[in-house]
Amino acid sequence: MIVLGIETSCDETSAAVLKDGKLLSSIVSSQYFHSKYGGVVPELASRAHQRVIVKVVDEALTSAGIKKEEIDGIAVTYGPGLIGSLLVGVSFAKAMAYGLKIPIVGVNHIEGHVFSTFLMDEHPDFPFIALVVSGGHTMLILVEDFLKLTLLGQTRDDAAGEAFDKVAKLLGLGYPGGPFIDKLAREGDPNFVKFPKPIPSSKSKSSRETDELNKYEFSFSGLKTAVLYYLKKINFQSLGEEEKNKLIRDISASFQRAVVEALVEQTIKAAKDFNVKNITIAGGVAANSELRKTMKEKAENEGLKLYIPDLAYCTDNAAMIAFVGYIKLKSGIKHDFDLAPVPNLKI
Ligand code: KG4
Ligand code: ZN
């Protein structure tokens, strides 16, 4: 079965071709121009998707050596994401499926991340715990089968990647901030400032869920505010260049330590509670070198096995969408042509 995957939920236009679940090609066109605005501008993102989508799909087919008449089905991200961006991908996929008279299936972007390790030679057996950490999401998911996912907990406020981006902005670094903080933290002291742990207590007043769910939640907005207050306290802006440069490294390392410790602690806790032996991390933040290293060490200590996709499949890509689409189409799941984007689609 040949499946074409299309992903346009945020600022990456991507298309990929899979044959019987094996990757033939994956093309990702990133909208780097958002960096000058310090974040993704939704209107500009959808216009850019519109401009490049035909070229990206053509490139994916050419590079796979597949003619469009050979495609058996189309998988497209229909949420969660930016409405204008999703509309471009969904509309394009519908038109193409209609023209070729083939089935279309809408895929949840988060499910794509959860199964991105299945594009690699090594992937986890069921059941496994998936930590999805990106600019928009921080979720712990129990995965018992391809079609059996249970959301254990998520962030109550900012996503982990969003916290990286906001703290980087406070430190005067570029966008997206995660890679800058990751690099600078390597030369900093992670014990320089003791920032609060971004895990809400289960007794917290703002608790909206049951205690069981609370056990696996995160909260990053307090951590970001703690960095802001710390910078104000030391009068960061008035300091000299040399002093600032050293502080940026130490604060990056201290902030990153707090984020990584929380992500690792909650993931290992979920694996132990549900007696699961395999863990996977996906999403842009899975590129973080300290997260990869610490999660691997802690997992090994607990007798757990960690699977992380290659960097190109950690960030947004259509290959992971094509894979989930392939599983769904094979199970007889497809959508009608009234398929529409759902910006806040849940697991
Ligand atoms: O999955 P992704 O490409 O896009 C979505 O948000 O869906 O994730 C982007 C996020 C950004 O917040 C970026 O700062 C973060 O991933 N990120 C990192 C690293 N590389 C990307 N965060 C920490 N360390 C990194 N090395
Ligand atoms: Zn994503």
UniProtKB/TrEMBL annotation:
Keywords noted in UniProt: Acyltransferase, Cytoplasm, Iron, Metal-binding, Transferase, tRNA processing
Cofactor comment text: Binds 1 Fe(2+) ion per subunit.
Single GO cellular component term: cytoplasm
Keyword Cytoplasm: yes
Catalytic reaction list: L-threonylcarbamoyladenylate + adenosine(37) in tRNA = N(6)-L-threonylcarbamoyladenosine(37) in tRNA + AMP + H(+)
GO MF entries: iron ion binding; tRNA N(6)-L-threonylcarbamoyladenine synthase activity
Name the record gives this protein: tRNA N6-adenosine threonylcarbamoyltransferase
Gene field: tsaD
Family affiliation: Belongs to the KAE1 / TsaD family.
Binding locations of substrate: V132, V133, S134, G135, G136, D165, G178, D182, N288
EC number: 2.3.1.234
Binding-site residues, Fe cation: H109, H113, D316
